Amino acid sequence: MSDNNAQDTVKELRALSQLINASIDEIEHAMVSRGQSFPLLNESYSLESEIPRMEPDMVAAGTVITSAAAQLIAAVRIPAVSALVTALQYEVSSSLRGVIQAHVPEILREAGVKGLHVSDIAASTKVDPSRLARILRLLATNHIFTEVSPDVFAHNRTVNDAMFRKSNGPDKTAFNLALKTNLTYFSYLELPENAYAHRRFNASMNGVHNMVPPGTMLEGFDWNSLRPQSNVVDVGSGIGSQSLALAETFPHLNFILQDSQATLENALTFWKAEFPEAISTGRVKMQDEHAIKILCRLRAAAGPDTQLVVIDSILSFACPENDIVKNIPGAAGPLPPPPLLPNLGYAGVPSYLSDISMMNAHDGVERTIVQFNKIFEESGWKISRVHRGVLGIASTITGVPA
């Protein structure tokens, strides 16, 4: 980028920022002159509290702020992230519909500003509390409801008074209901008539890789500490775009990709195009249908020096969480400046959208560090350290035998 282009970019960002600041000044001046208070986001909604916001000059100022803020987001956010958020935005509306159908707004209205734990919310609705928490957290990350403390939710002003039954298993999802199939999502993709959709899915996973800043995969674990010719087993590898970054950087390591046979056929095409020498020399091998068996046997097969490396998104609560993760090395990340949400709100929403998509299509889950710690403990592992990626994406969790 030339100096002139860089200056033009910064000039545009500053212009948008100035529009926002000037409009906030207009709001402040109007509120002072009228003796009114502008409604706070975390206050409960009422017609009376909205009166200051509905004045024509306040509507005009708010419109400028909304337009400038949205354009500012579009200008600074990674394009692939913007595309993902747009593609998955339906998860927000469907989540809102779900909580309304489960009468969550009415239940929370009775709870007041202190909120209610998700187990208590779910008790009278026959909704799975773990699923409901994830749905409410996505909404809270979009400033619909507030997460007062971990898994405790309350109303805010975005929500007013104006099927998610318990089910478990990747073949008992919203995807199965919509397509009237008993197949899991990946089994459905492997049908001959869905070959194009399968290739498109694999390409989208490579696109997700492009959302992560270069070098992120290299930061969370000391790959150089592994002995020459060590095998790195990528369980559920997809086409192996994550392992590709490692293979190009660490020539002393070998890689085994494990996924379904149909996925690995696409992976072979991908690797032959991107890094053919790794295939021809045998540095990268592919194994199908063993991923689940290996996951179940990892702990049983682990030696005293074995390390389990999980590279995945780590979701944060939409409220302060450091006190509950302080005993997990590296798990407590720095908090953003107030009044931003502790999980950075809209900036971090892609992971929460992905979580709901995982639940609907696969009965899967994007986990908080508390949930990761729980499954590590239950399977005989102990988290030794955590390296959080930007916005929790591509974080590294290293475990050792407990």
UniProtKB/TrEMBL annotation:
It comes from the Eukaryota. The lineage of its organism: Eukaryota, Fungi, Dikarya, Basidiomycota, Agaricomycotina. InterPro entries: COMT_dimerisation, SAM-dependent_MTases_sf, WH-like_DNA-bd_sf, WH_DNA-bd_sf. GO terms for molecular function: methyltransferase activity; protein dimerization activity. Keywords: Methyltransferase, S-adenosyl-L-methionine, Transferase. This is O-methyltransferase dimerisation domain-containing protein. Gene3D superfamilies: Vaccinia Virus protein VP39, Winged helix-like DNA-binding domain superfamily/Winged helix DNA-binding domain. Residues 89-151 form the O-methyltransferase dimerisation domain.
